[in-house]
Amino acid sequence: ASPPLIEALRDFALSTVGPDKLRNEAGSIASQEGYLPSGKVKMWLRGEWKEILLIGMKIHDQPYGGKHSQKVQSLLRQGTQALRNEDGEQAEHFLNQALQLEPEAIDLSFNLAIAYQMQDRQADMVRLLHELYDRDPNYPFVRTALAQLLIDTKELDGAEAILQPMIQWREMHFQAFSAFCQTQIEWHLAKKLEDDAKSWLGIWRQVEPDHPNLAYWQDVLDNPSRIDWELSP
C-alpha cells in the first residue's frame, strides 16, 4: 500500500469515526507498515479512549538459519519426534549427530537444550541457552526461553528487558510468536496485570487459533484462584 493510504488508515484508526472493528483493523495495518508503534496505543473503543495492544510484526513460517542438508533434516525430524515422545535421551542422541554435521545450526542446539531440560539437566540447559543467546541474541526461541527462566525465579525486570524489545520486531516465525505470547502472558500474570495478559491471549488466538495451549491459559485467566496457584513458587 502507498504511504498516503497507510497514513489515512493510521489517522482513521486514531479517530472516533466508524465502527470499532474497522478502526482496530486499520490500526493493525498501520502498525505492520511502521506508521504506528507496536505496543500500547490509545484508541476510541466502546465509546471511550482506551489503551489497546497493537503488534505490528508480520508472522511467517520460514525456518531460521536457512535449510539443512537432507541428512540433518532426517536427524532433526527424529530428534523432534523423540522430544514429542518426551524421550530426552533419544532426542539428544539424534541432535548431537546432526550437530556434528552442522555445528553452527542454532535450531539444533536449541532443541538440544530442550532435550537437556527433559532429562532434568537444568545446569546444562541454562549454560547452552546462554551460549546461544551470546551467539545470536535475536533468535526468538532462545530469548523467550531465557525470559521464562527469569520469570520462574521471579526476576521480572530481567525478563522484561529480554521481552520488551521483541515487541518492536518487524517479523517472527509463527511458532516463536506463540512462545513469545505465552511468555508475555506469564510475565503479566506475575506482575498481576491480568487485563494485559488477556490482551496477549487475544493476540495469540488471532495468529494461531488452534494452538493446544490456548484453552489452558483461557481457563487460568477465567479463574482467579488458578492464577494464584499458577504463580506460586
**Biggest beta sheet summary:** 2 strands, antiparallel
**Helices and strands, in N-to-C order?**
HHEEEHHHHHHEHHHH
Radius of gyration: 20 Å
The fraction of residues assigned to DSSP E strands is: 5-15%
- The residue-averaged pLDDT reads 90
Number of strands: 4
Structural class: mainly alpha
Helix content: 55-70%
Task: Give the low-confidence spans.
Answer: none
User: Please, how many helices?
Assistant: 12
User: Whole-Å distance between the termini?
Assistant: 49 Å
List the strand order in the largest sheet. Answer: 1-2
The domain count comes to 3
- What sort of overall outline do the alpha carbons produce when their principal axes are compared? globular
Please state the oligomeric state of the protein chains shown.
single chain
